[in-house]
Write a structure and sequence with these properties.
The complex is a heterodimer. Helices cover 17% and strands 30% of the residues of chain A. By secondary structure, chain A is α/β, with parallel strands linked by helices. Chain A has two domains: 22-104, ACT domain (Alpha-Beta Plaits, 2-Layer Sandwich); 109-243, Pectate Lyase C-like, CATH 2.160.20.70. In chain A, the strands form three sheets. In chain A, strands 5-7-9-11-14-15 form a six-stranded mixed β-sheet, with no helix packed on it. Chain A has a five-stranded mixed β-sheet with strand order 6-8-10-12-13, with no helix packed on it. In chain A, helix 2 links the parallel strand 2 and strand 3. In chain A, helix 1 (31-44) runs parallel beside helix 2. In chain B, strands 3-4-2-5-1-6-7-8 form an eight-stranded mixed β-sheet, sandwiched between helices. The chains are: A alpha/beta, B alpha/beta. At the A-B interface, loops of A face helix 7 of B. Chain A: Belongs to the MinC family. Chain A: Residues 12-82 form the Septum formation inhibitor MinC N-terminal domain. Chain A: Residues 119-139 are annotated as: Disordered. Chain A: InterPro entries: CAP/MinC_C, MinC, MinC_C_sf, MinC_N, Septum_form_inhib_MinC_C.
C-alpha cells in the first residue's frame, strides 16, 4: 500500500514492499566461530559478499545475551551488512536497537502475520514479507467522514478511513479496516473470508462489527469498551474486542 | 452571478422553511437582492411563513412548464424591497419539476439577484435532490436530537455526491450547519444533544444556533419572518447567522444556560 499525495514538493512516500532478504540463521553465538566460517564462505563465493544486507536470526539460540556488536563487526569485515535481528529475548531486542538495527519478532507463522506484532519501523529494515502481503495491493485510503447512507469498500485489500464512519454508514474490506476517528456505523472486514483481517478504530461506537462473517451487534459489545480505541480480531472463531489504550 | 444556497435537512419539521424565510429576509435587510424559492411542490408553506399566501397567482411549476413568465410568478415582499418569493404549486407533485426547467429558472434569476435561496422539501427524493442540485452552498438545518442529526448526515452525503458541483468535479458545495430549536436548559438536563456532540458527528462549520423560542411559532402564524422581531432571541440569532453567511465573524450566542438573577426571576424578565 502506498500513501500518495498529489504534491510536487513531497520529500518522500512510505511504501510497503517485499524485498528478497538473506536471513543468516545463527547456530552459534561465538563471534570467533562465525568469523572462521565466514572466511571460508568468502573464498568460495566472493560475489555473494558485496555489502549484502542480512537479517541475523537468533531464534535457534538460547542465550539471553549476545555479543551482538562483535557479531555485527565480524559480518561487516566480510562485507555483509546486518540490517535487523530476528528473534531473541528482550535484551537482544534492546541491543539491536542500540546498534541501529531493526528487530523482528520470531517467525512462528500466525504471530508474525497479525498486525499487533508488526515489527517496529526502522529506516532501513524492510518489513516482514508476510505482514505486507495482504496490504500490498488493492488497499484503499478514504479521507473524510463516511456519512449515513454511504458505503465505502476496498474489495481487494485493506481500507483506511482518515475520519469518522457515522451511524448508518457502512465500510467493507477484503482485508482489515482501520478507522482514524469514531466508528459509529457498520464495519465488515474480511468479506471474502480472510480470518486474519481485523478492525481497528480510535473510538468504538459501531452498530455492527464483522470479521469473515463473524459478527457482533452494538448490543453484544461490552459497554465498557464503547468510546475507546480498540482492535477487533478473530480468536477461535470468536470476535475478540480488546482495548488499544 | 447569484449565489445559490439550499436550505435542507432530510428530516421534516426541523425548521427549514422558517430558516429559509428568516435568512432570506435577513439577507435582503442587509441590502442584498434576494429571492427565496419554495421547492416543496404539493406541500407549499413558504408563502404562509412569508405572509404572501393571498398574492400567489402563478408558481414555480407554471414557470417551468411555460404557462407563466418568471416575473409573473415572482412575488415582491411587502416589508423588504429587494426580497422576492417564488412559491411552489400546491396542486401538483414533485414530478412536475424537471432538472432542465429548474436550471433555466435559476439561470434567469441569477442574472438579477445576489442570493437565491432554495427551500428544500423534506426527504431525500426527487424534490430534495433538485433543490440541492445546482447549489453553491448548503445550510443544513438540524435539531438537537439523534434522528435529525442522522438525517442531516445523510443529506451531507448527498450534497457531496448528487450535486452539479460534485458531478462536474468542481469545488464542493460549501456546507454550513444551522442548529435550530436549541434549548440550553434541556441540553443541560441531558434531554437534547449538546452542541459539541452535533458538531463532532456532522463535522462541518457551524453557521448559527437558533434557540427554541416562542417568537418563532408566533412569527410563523403571523406570516412575518422572525428576523423582523429584533427583540427576540431567535430573531437576533438569525441575524447573526446572516452576518456569518456574509463572511463576518460573530461570537456564538444563546448556547449557554442563562442563570437568571433573583430580580429577573421575581419580575419574570427574560429574553423572549
Amino acid at each position: 500500500m502506498s500513501l500518495k499525495v498529489d504534491r510536487a514538493d513531497m520529500a518522500f512516500t512510505f511504501k510497503g514492499g517485499m524485498l528478497p532478504m538473506t536471513v543468516m540463521e545463527l547456530a552459534s553465538a561465538d563471534p570467533e566461530q562465525i568469523r572462521e566460517q565466514l572466511s571460508g564462505k568468502l573464498s568460495q563465493s566472493p560475489a555473494f559478499f558485496q555489502h549484502t544486507p542480512v537479517v541475523l536470526s537468533v531464534e535457534k539460540l538460547d542465550e539471553p545475551h549476545l555479543a551482538l556488536e562483535r557479531i555485527c563487526a565480524v559480518c561487516r569485515t566480510h562485507k555483509l551488512l546486518p540490517v535487523a535481528v530476528r528473534g531473541g529475548a528482550d535484551p537482544v531486542k534492546q541491543s539491536a536497537w542500540a546498534l541501529g538495527l531493526g528487530w523482528f519478532p520470531p517467525s512462528d507463522g500466525a504471530r508474525a502475520r497479525s498486525l499487533e506484532e508488526v515489527p517496529p519501523v526502522e529506516a532501513e529494515a524492510p518489513s516482514e514479507p508476510e505482514a505486507t502481503a495482504s496490504a500490498a495491493s488493492g488497499g484503499r485510503i478514504y479521507r473524510g467522514t463516511v456519512r449515513s447512507g454511504q458505503q465505502v469498500s476496498a474489495p481487494d485489500g485493506d481500507l483506511v478511513v482518515i475520519g469518522a464512519v457515522n451511524a448508518g454508514a457502512e465500510v467493507l474490506a477484503a482485508g482489515s479496516i482501520h478507522v482514524y476517528g469514531a466508528l459509529r456505523g457498520r464495519a465488515l472486514a474480511g468479506i471474502h473470508g480472510d480470518t486474519e483481517a481485523g478492525i481497528f478504530c480510535r473510538e468504538l461506537r459501531a452498530e455492527l462489527l464483522s470479521v469473515a462473517g463473524n459478527y457482533k451487534r452494538l448490543e453484544d459489545i461490552d459497554p465498557h469498551l464503547l468510546g475507546s480505541s480498540v482492535q477487533v480480531v478473530l480468536r477461535d472463531a470468536q470476535l475478540g474486542i480488546t482495548s488499544l489504550a | 452571478m447569484a449565489k445559490i444556497i439550499v436550505v435542507t435537512s432530510g428530516k421534516g419539521g426541523v425548521g427549514k422553511t422558517t430558516s429559509a424565510a428568516a435568512i432570506a429576509t435577513g439577507l435582503a435587510l442587509r441590502g442584498n437582492k434576494t429571492v427565496v424559492i419554495d421547492f416543496d411542490v404539493g406541500l407549499r408553506n413558504l408563502d404562509l411563513i412569508m405572509g404572501c399566501e393571498r398574492r400567489v397567482v402563478y408558481d414555480l411549476v407554471n414557470v417551468i412548464q411555460g404557462e407563466a413568465g418568471l416575473n409573473q410568478a415572482l412575488i415582491r415582499d411587502k416589508r423588504v424591497d429587494n426580497l422576492h418569493i417564488l412559491p411552489a404549486s400546491q396542486t401538483r407533485d414533485k414530478d412536475a419539476l424537471t432538472s432542465e426547467g429548474v436550471e433555466k429558472v435559476l439561470d434567469t434569476l441569477g442574472k438579477d439577484f445576489d442570493y437565491i435561496l432554495c427551500d428544500s422539501p423534506a426527504g431525500i427524493e426527487r424534490g430534495a435532490q433538485l433543490a440541492m442540485y445546482y447549489a453553491d452552498e448548503a445550510i443544513v438545518v438540524t435539531n438537537p436530537e439523534v434522528s435529525s442529526v442522522r438525517d442531516s448526515d445523510r443529506i451531507l452525503g448527498l450534497l457531496a455526491s448528487k450535486t452539479r458541483r460534485a458531478e462536474r468535479g468542481e469545488d464542493p458545495v460549501k456546507e454550513h450547519l444551522l442548529i435550530t430549536r436549541y434549548n440550553a436548559t434541556r441540553v443541560d438536563h441531558g434531554d437534547m444533544l449538546n452542541l459539541e456532540d452535533i458538531r463532532e458527528i456532522l463535522a462541518i462549520d457551524l453557521i448559527g444556533l437558533i434557540p427554541e423560542s416562542e417568537a418563532v411559532l408566533r412569527a410563523s402564524n403571523q406570516g412575518v419572518p422572525v428576523t423582523h422581531d429584533d427583540n427576540s432571541d431567535a430573531g437576533q440569532a438569525y441575524m447573526d447567522t446572516v452576518s456569518r453567511l456574509l463572511g463576518e465573524e460573530i461570537p456564538l450566542r444563546f448556547h449557554e444556560l442563562q442563570k437568571k438573577s433573583l430580580l429577573s426571576r421575581m419580575f419574570g424578565g427574560g429574553r423572549r
